[in-house]
C-alpha cells in the first residue's frame, strides 16, 4: 500500500509513504489517520486538514485510489492489496468532480480498482501500428498483457481501455467526446477544438492558458457514465500522438492529473 498527499493538482507534495501502515481490513480514512495528522468534520466523514494543510476558500481535499475517484466517503471505502491512495487539495470551482487521473501510473492497470483487476486493451485508430506497439511495449515492461484491437471493438464495462490515435479519428467513441467539452464535464483541464486540430490547455480556473495546433499531444483519463476509466493517448495529428506516446511513462506522468506535450515539453494540467 502507498499513500501520497499533495496540493494544487499534484503540484506540491506534502507527504509520500510508499509503504504506508495498514492494519487488517483497513479503510482509506483509517489508513490516512494512521499515517498523517488529520482533522475531520461531520463525525469524521469529511477531511478538513492533513498535516496542517486545511481546505476551505474554494479548495478541498479529494482522494483517488489507483487513479480513480471513489464514489463514497473515505470512511466507507475499503482498501485492497496494492492500492495507491492519493489525497490532493485543489480548487473545485471549475470541476467539482475529476473522475480519473493519470498520475498514479502504472495504476489502475496493475492492481485495478475497487478490488477488481480488469483486462487491459489497447485500441488503435491509425493505419500504422507503431504508436500502439510502443504502448504495448510499456505494458510488457510491467509484465502486463494487453490485447490490441480497433476502436470500440470491446464493451466499455469489460476492460480498461487505452485509446491511441489522433483526436479526429475518435469521433465514434462517446467517451472521447468529453475531451471536447468543458472541464466541468470531462474533469480534464484541456479540450480539443476546431475538429480536433487544436488543443486548448486550461488553468485551474478553467480559463484558456495556451492554445496549440500541429504536433500537440495529451495523455488523459475520463470516465463515461460510471464505466471503467478510459485513457487517451491522443493529439491534434499523428505527430501529436507520437509526442504523447513518448510521455507514456511513470517518470512523466507521476503525480499529475493529466499531461499535455507541446514542442517536446511535458506540461502538467491544469496548465500554469
Report on this structure.
The chain is mainly beta and 272 residues long. The protein has 2 domains: 2-91, Ferric Hydroxamate Uptake Protein, Chain A, domain 1 (Beta Complex), CATH 2.170.130.30; 120-269, Chitobiase, domain 2 (2-Layer Sandwich). 14% of the residues lie in helices and 34% in strands. The protein is built from 5 helices and 18 strands. The chain has helices at residues 28-35, 130-141, 183-186, 238-246, 250-253, and strands spanning 2-7, 12-17, 38-41, 46-50, 53-54, 59-65, 68-69, 84-91, 120-124, 146-150, 160-166, 190-193, 198-202, 208-212, 217-222, 230-235, 258-262, 265-269. A 7-stranded mixed sheet has the order 10-9-11-16-15-17-18. It has a 5-stranded mixed sheet with strand order 2-1-8-6-7, covered by helices on one side. The longest helix has 12 residues, at 130-141.
Amino acid at each position: 500500500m502507498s499513500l501520497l498527499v499533495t496540493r494544487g493538482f499534484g503540484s506540491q507534495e506534502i507527504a509520500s509513504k510508499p509503504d504506508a501502515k495498514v492494519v487488517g481490513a483497513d479503510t482509506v480514512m483509517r489508513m490516512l489517520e494512521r499515517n498523517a495528522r488529520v482533522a475531520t468534520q461531520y463525525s469524521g466523514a469529511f477531511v478538513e486538514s492533513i498535516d496542517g494543510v486545511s481546505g476551505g476558500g474554494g479548495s478541498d481535499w479529494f482522494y483517488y485510489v489507483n487513479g480513480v475517484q471513489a464514489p463514497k466517503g473515505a470512511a466507507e471505502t475499503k482498501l485492497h492489496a496494492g492500492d495507491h491512495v492519493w489525497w490532493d487539495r485543489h480548487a473545485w470551482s471549475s470541476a467539482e468532480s475529476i473522475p480519473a487521473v493519470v498520475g498514479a501510473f502504472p495504476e489502475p492497470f496493475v492492481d485495478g480498482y475497487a478490488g477488481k483487476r480488469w483486462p487491459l486493451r489497447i485500441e488503435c485508430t491509425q493505419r500504422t501500428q507503431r504508436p500502439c506497439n510502443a504502448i504495448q511495449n510499456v505494458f510488457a515492461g510491467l509484465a502486463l498483457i494487453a490485447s490490441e484491437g480497433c476502436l470500440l471493438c470491446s464493451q466499455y464495462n469489460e476492460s480498461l481501455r487505452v485509446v491511441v490515435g489522433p483526436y479526429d479519428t475518435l469521433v465514434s467513441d462517446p467517451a472521447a467526446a468529453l475531451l471536447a467539452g468543458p472541464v466541468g464535464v470531462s474533469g480534464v483541464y484541456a479540450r480539443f477544438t476546431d475538429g480536433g486540430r487544436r488543443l486548448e490547455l486550461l488553468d485551474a480556473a478553467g480559463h484558456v492558458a495556451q492554445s496549440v495546433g500541429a504536433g500537440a499531444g495529451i495523455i488523459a483519463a475520463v470516465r463515461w457514465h460510471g464505466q471503467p476509466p478510459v485513457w487517451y493517448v491522443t493529439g491534434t495529428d499523428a505527430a501529436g500522438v507520437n509526442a504523447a506516446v513518448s510521455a507514456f511513462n511513470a517518470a512523466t506522468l507521476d503525480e499529475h492529473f493529466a499531461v499535455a506535450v507541446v514542442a517536446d515539453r511535458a506540461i502538467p494540467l491544469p496548465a500554469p
